[in-house]
Amino acid sequence: MPPLRGTGAERYAEEPEYAGDYRLQACLGSGGMGVVHLASSASGLRLAVKVVHARYAEDPEFRARFRQEVAAARRVSGAFTAPVVDADPDAERPWMATLYVPGPTLADQVKRNGPLSPAELRRLTAGLAEALRDIHRAGVVHRDLKPSNVLLTDTGPKVIDFGISRPVDSDLHTETGKLIGSPPFMAPEQFQRPREVGPAADVFALGSVLVHAATGHGPFDSDSPYIVAYQVVHDEPDLTGVPADLAPLVARCLAKEPVARPTPAQIMQALLPPSYAAEAFIPAQRRRPALPEDEDAGHAPAWDADTPVRAPAPAVPRRGPRIRPRPTIAVAAALALTAAGLYAALSRPADRPETPTSPDEVATSFTGWTTGLQKYGPSSAPACTHDAGALYCAARGVGLARLDPVTGRILWSRTAPVEQGSPEVPVPLAEGLVGAAAPTGPLRAYAAGDGAPGWTARGKLPEVYRPAGEAVVLSDGVGGIRAVDARGGKELWRHGLTGFGVPRPGPYDAPSGLLTVSEASEDATHTRVAAIRPATGEVVWQRNLDGNLDPLGRTGDGTLVLAAFYGADASLVDALVLLGPGGDHGAVRRLSLPYRMDLRGVAVSGAVVHLLDADGHLTAFDTAAPKGKVLWDLETAAGNVSPPVLGPRDRLYFSVQDGRLLAVDTVRGALVGQTRPRLRNGRLGYATTVPAPVVAGDRVFGTAPDGSVFAVDARDPASW
């Protein structure tokens, strides 16, 4: 049913009368993204319906993010949230409906009736901790937990207004994006590293919310958002007035470092036994909104609930002052904290090789391990590979090391060449050999058994290399392309490819034995793609395709998948292009993605392409569907991630720049486990380049910016 327009003179006169089949009865509140209405279904079910502002409905990117928000909100619906009932992100005015939950917000309750009693406060603490536990299990970080986003009901608190999609009207802005949240309830890392905010930020916000509930003010108070931001990052919280039995727990929640804060489960454990349950919260009476035939007290705005509920007509809803600070470099500089460096030592000298652990020594249950690999210099995440039952890793200053995959012992290591500035990356070569090279070469071979140096492939210019079966293909970036024998390092061939100016080696397909090579035109309107045999340099086929494309890999039937960049912008991908088996004879299909992605990597399983963007948003996209189909979306709230890697048991793994390793169930699209961040000299470290984890059977090997390599049991990610 098309939306109908009202004719009144007030600010809501132009709001629609319907959202889908739901008649909008009254306004419950308004925020930056939309208006929340009371509505009812045909069966009489009371709903809170958010309708997006018209100015955002015309923005395709906003629609895409709203679509993500709807998908994520469905996943977190539970006992401590307002369940999603229906939604239509593709409507003329996108909308989402949740169950109407009677009850005041915590902000309104404290404002009207003063701080909560100790028993009410303990009950609130336990309820919010349980809510955060369930939200985080769904792979979501709220980012904006505050008193106005907590509803108080007789069955416990409900968390609303999920900040899953970054709102376009954030209060604070930086050069690299927007800081998500409300300054008095934001964690230090939200000011310092807004793109790397994790679940611990919600725990910090919980601590601030509890101080507000206990005292009527926050732990960091000022009229200036700049001063609040400085206090959050540098000053100790003011816990005056917090009950003595809760103050230590609240102080832990407000720890500056994320790893020092308790998890929601630990907060729940700390509150046992549940003596607080004896006193249930009874919502205080409050003014009722002017609702048709409505006798209920309370309200349930499901988003943007920072405005008081509308009083009886003709009063207009009041908005609190919005914090819109003036741009300033000084404030950003004052908030920026530099991470302390760490000179991580090797866990043992590696002058001579050791004997790897025998398989007979391996217990049925695998015990994880952590090994410090980096020898000197600023810390960075090592890169690893697994080949023939051995684990090989390289780090800054460590050209290559072999680790026992069962115990993590360093069996041998070789120091990186003096002239090598960037960390090297290990690569399997041939039986008995393993290689290592920086991103632009040269490539050096070592004996797998004892690390003895072997051959070196060095060009006149730095070269990009691609292992391809028994050969390694190298490109110098100015037009030269060649291959060397992986076993002996002998050059196999060298030539320029017809039709190419500067060919780029792409993914190697082992089943077909072909390496993809590509080059986009200068105007980014088309891309030449070819397949070559690495051992001979033979060009099997060439094809000109429309668009600025980058080969990603092949599906189960041999179809080549290419990322299509948005126009000349080589950072955002808005479609996938499929080139059917046969190359120059294959059919071409273009499948639009639901939104533009800053891709960090893909993992292909059959016809399903798993796309991971820079913000940690993971999408499973079925290329077998005629127009493509999103099977599921997962918001992991991880920033600066590695390429994803598929493993057994329908699992997918990727690393985060703070050293975390995440595991995702690819059937359900659910986060099933993650490791802790890895400290560097007592502080979190962040890697600028995040190597992909390595999966080998029932083990997953990750690396961290403190220079360590670690192993976890892939069979039980929940225990990480």
TrEMBL record:
SUPFAM superfamilies: Protein kinase-like (PK-like), Quinoprotein alcohol dehydrogenase-like. Keywords: ATP-binding, Kinase, Nucleotide-binding, Transferase. Residues 22-282 form the Protein kinase domain. It comes from Streptomyces nymphaeiformis. Residues 290-322 are annotated as: Disordered. It comes from the Bacteria. InterPro entries: Kinase-like_dom_sf, PQQ_rpt_dom, Prot_kinase_dom, Protein_kinase_ATP_BS, Quinoprotein_ADH-like_sf, Ser/Thr_kinase_AS, WD40/YVTN_repeat-like_dom_sf. Pfam families: Pkinase (PF00069), PQQ_2 (PF13360). The keyword Transport does not apply. Residues 304-318 have a biased composition (Low complexity). Gene3D superfamilies: Phosphorylase Kinase, domain 1 (3.30.200.20), Transferase(Phosphotransferase) domain 1 (1.10.510.10), YVTN repeat-like/Quinoprotein amine dehydrogenase (2.130.10.10). This is Outer membrane protein assembly factor BamB. ATP binds at residue 50. GO terms for molecular function: ATP binding; protein serine/threonine kinase activity.
